[in-house]
Amino acid sequence: MGWSGLTNGRLLKLAERQFDVFITADSNLTFQQNPAKFDLAVIVLEAQSTRLSDTMPLISPVLTALATIQAREVVRIRAKV
Questions:
Q1: Radius of gyration of the chain (CA)
Q2: pTM, whole model, 2 decimals?
Q3: Residue 60: CA atoms inside 13 Å, Cβ hemisphere, count?
C-alpha cells in the first residue's frame, strides 16, 4: 500500500479511512498513540516473533475478537507460553 516507513500516528490515520480493524505486532503502538483518537479498532499480536509459526496459534483468538471488537477498542492477544 506504500505505507512503509510511516509513523504510527499517520499509519493509523490512513488505516481508519480504509479499515475497521488494524492488526499489528507492534506492542508499543498503543503506548505511543492513543487508539481512542481513531475510528478504528486495534488488535495487538504478542507472539515470540512475527514468523508464521509463531503467529498462527493466535489466529483463532483473532477471529473471536473480530466478532465483537468495536472502534476505539484495543485487544491484546498473547501467545501461550
A1: 12
A2: 0.91
A3: 3
